[in-house]
Amino acid sequence: MEPNRQDTDTAQLMEQILYEVKRVVVGQDRFLERVMVATLAQGHLLVEGVPGLAKTLTVKTLANTIRGQFKRIQFTPDLVPADLVGTRIYNQKTGEFSTALGPVFTNLLLADEINRAPAKVQSALLEVMQERQVTIAGETHRVPEPFLVMATQNPIETEGTYPLPEAQVDRFMMKVLVDYPTDEQEFVIVERVTGPAITVQSVATTDQLAALQQECRRIYVDPSLVQYAVRLVSATRTPERHGLKELRPYITFGASPRATINLTEGARALAMLRGRTYVLPEDMTDLVADVFRHRLVLSYEALSEGLSADALVERIMAKIPAPQKPLEHEKLVA
């Protein structure tokens, strides 16, 4: 069966968005793919990487490409919740209070070095991420749609940082690790940065992006794949039930049901990015580490043995095989 016109238009629009971003950002294909997955699945992204790896540039360029608003907040220890969400201002001339909305009222929000701010500031961001709204002096204000928070953490410095509360970490759809570029990529980076400035073209509107997000919800996920996601999450909580008794001393707390939901939604978005209307097992397996790594609370025993969350997830995936490629999609495309 021929792909319908809507599918073709969707694929073209996704290609145009990626093409424009890649004109500016060199390499970081995996990171960019995860940003697009989070955007389509309406999730939030936690990014860990040393400074200078184009984290800010990627989100800013994406915002320009979809004609969305972009704002960046540099998190510091002296930040207060009002600096994020806004506050009430008294006007002496009129004798009335007016509401000044904070920088969270945007489409793409970059929370730079999120672990530098105290818990009360992180909690203020928590409401916006989960409820997509802010309450100021008893009044509720909705943030614009689409809305994506991308928070960064610097893995080098720990002085003057606050650990993120577990409840907040769980609200991030994925945690992505960004690495240094290759020598060839770095050569191209230098050429682009020191060469003529590149102007990014706006190829989509925020309304078109919202339509893409709705379309993403219609991507078919076979029940066997949802069951696979459930088994993987279950193995992080009770490894002994899945023949992984040796992992029990290493995991204090496993992943929450949000992990199952995010894995399914993320696989849908990745399938859509790859030009399909149905999810294949590899769409899900490619995202497992990103969805799980920040949700596992490791024991002191695991830390003392130098075990990372990624290593434990790898062992779980080796024990629990992905289902065979579902045949259901053949009915959809027949």
What's the shape? globular
Integer count of domains: 2
What is the C-level CATH assignment of the largest domain? Answer: Alpha Beta
Fraction in helix: 40-55%
Strands across the major sheet, in which order? 2-5-8-1-9
Provide the low-confidence segments as ranges. Answer: none
Kindly state the mean pLDDT as a whole number? 84
Continuous helix count: 15
Largest sheet: 5 strands, parallel
The fourth-level CATH homologous superfamily of the largest domain is P-loop containing nucleotide triphosphate hydrolases
Task: Report the portion of residues in β strands.
Answer: 5-15%
Task: Write the element-wise H/E pattern from the N-terminal end onward.
Answer: HHEHEHEEEHEEEHEHHHEHHHEHHH
End-to-end span in angstroms? Answer: 6 Å
What's the CATH topology label of the largest domain? Rossmann fold
Total strand count, please?
Answer: 11
Known CATH architecture of the largest domain? 3-Layer(aba) Sandwich
Radius of gyration: 21 Å
Structural class: alpha/beta
InterPro entries: ATPase_AAA-3, CbbQ/NirQ/NorQ/GpvN, ChlI/MoxR_AAA_lid, P-loop_NTPase, Sigma_54_int
Keywords: ATP-binding, Nucleotide-binding
Protein name: ATPase
Family: Belongs to the MoxR family.
